[in-house]
Specification:
Blueprint: E1 30-32, E2 36-41, E3 47-54, E4 56-61, E5 66-77, H1 82-86, E6 89-90, E7 95-98, E8 101-105, E9 116-122
Parallel strand pairs: 1-3, 4-9
Antiparallel strand pairs: 1-6, 2-3, 4-5, 5-7, 7-8, 8-9
Length: 124
């Protein structure tokens, strides 16, 4: 049997390549450092502000029902990949150490232009 031909003698046609709109963008990694943001042009002319490095976090304290902007001290653990915490990479669900105490990141900083978190443990 010839390679690339059907039993009936017809040819198999290759699947088409991906179009530009179907190609995924570059992965953005938010690291611990001075606040740095970037505007990206999206499909249709829209723009998106993405975070590249973060030094501050907007913490929501559910008990006091207030939001505060505080400094990030350290990345403690990342539930989806333990190696990301060693590299100080911030993703959704990451537990970070702040001036107020431990907090869990509730948004996707690589998709949005800020880091938001909810307080877990307060420093006494």
């Amino acid at each position: 049997m010839n390679k690339g031909k059907k039993i009936s003698g017809g040819r198999y046609h290759k699947q088409r390549k991906k179009k530009l709109r179907e190609i995924a963008g570059k992965p953005r990694i938010v690291k611990l450092g001075a606040d740095k943001k970037k505007n990206i042009r999206m499909l249709g002319g829209d723009s998106k502000t993405v975070m590249l490095t973060a030094a501050t976090v907007s913490i929501i304290d559910k008990k006091k029902k207030k939001a505060k902007k505080v400094k990030i001290m350290n990345v403690l653990e990342t539930p989806n990949n333990k190696f990301l915490a060693k590299q100080n990479i911030i993703t959704k669900g990451t537990i970070i150490e702040t001036e107020l105490g431990k907090a869990r990141v509730t948004n996707r900083p690589s998709q949005q232009g800020s880091v938001q978190a909810v307080l877990i443990e307060e420093v006494k």
